Please model this.
Amino acid sequence: IDKQLVGQTAAEIRRVRPEIGIVLSTGYTEGVDDDRVRELSIDEVVAKPPSMPELLQTLDRVLSRRAHQG
Model:
């Protein structure tokens, strides 16, 4: 999800489908508040535009963690 929609969208996703991984994609990584990211249960943050290997590695980490959580 994009940073502009992150608060409302992440909360809605967690309410409806808590098992789904959430990756925040933003062009402004220096403005990302790590505490807020954790508070919203966002799994990973990637800078736009991610390279294909970076995106694949990120998705693999998120999916692996979610699979092990239950």
Q: What stands out?
A: The longest helix spans residues 52-69. The chain has a mean pLDDT of 86. The first strand starts at residue 23 and ends at 26.
